[in-house]
Amino acid sequence: MDEAVQVGTCYASLAYFGHALEKLLHGAIEAAASQRPRPTDGEERADDGAGEEMARVARFLDHFAPALQVVAGCARKIDVSLWPRLFGAVGPPRRLFESALAQDRLSVAAAFLLLLPHYSPADDGLDEGSADSLAADAQRLLASAVAATNWPLCKELMRFLAALDASGARLRRALAVAGIRTAAAPPGGSL
């Protein structure tokens, strides 16, 4: 592993290095999928050659800055039925979301936020995709995006929150927590 990391480090400054890592991860997932039947949610184990390869690739990725972005990009591009293999090796999307948020990698955290409603392994006991849980996560991410003045991300998060709740209550709550004042509608009409 050390030699592979040394070689990878030599190329880490290249603009397409993240894409190369994504191709590596995707290849490992495809190899694992072709070597044994697909597991059900939460069943992924690194107990065969394919699982061991996935675990090695995951450990390799952890040595490089774009690792979270690589995992998010790969998850968006593969079939959902392969997610148990991916997240069995790299960790659950909830943990990856929290890690990206803690590192102020807000766009990457947003990518994991979009995955949460679609990922619910049977054995973790969490309701990651519930509207309340998603709204709380989006609210925290929105507050961070406001602090970073990342207005395009703020706009996307507001759209996400509006889609969770037709009444707009979750969006209004998130805006208040983030310190965004909303303009009152003019008398007798819309804005």
Write the layout of secondary structure elements.
Layout: H1 2-11, H2 17-35, H3 49-61, H4 67-77, H5 83-90, H6 93-102, H7 106-115, H8 131-147, H9 151-164, H10 169-178
Helix pairs in contact: 2-3, 2-4, 3-5, 4-7, 6-7, 7-8, 8-9, 8-10, 9-10
Number of domains: 2
Q: Number of helix segments?
A: 10
Principal-axes geometry comes out as: elongated
Average of pLDDT: 85
Helical residues, percent:
55-70%
Coarse structural class: mainly alpha
Largest sheet: none
Number of strands: 0
| N- and C-termini, Cα separation | 59 Å
Beta-strand percentage range: under 5%
Query: How do the helices and strands follow one another from N- to C-terminus?
Result: HHHHHHHHHH
**What is the CA-atom radius of gyration, in angstroms?**
19 Å
Low-confidence stretches: none
Structure overview:
This protein is mainly α and 191 residues long. The protein has two domains: 1-91, no CATH class; 92-181, no CATH class. The chain is 64% helix and 0% strand. The chain is built from ten helices and no strands. The protein has helices spanning 2-11, 17-35, 49-61, 67-77, 83-90, 93-102, 106-115, 131-147, 151-164, 169-178. Helix 7 (106-115) runs antiparallel to helix 8 and helix 8 (131-147) runs antiparallel to helix 9 (151-164). The protein is elongated, with a radius of gyration of 19 Å. The chain starts with a helix and ends in a 13-residue tail after the last helix.
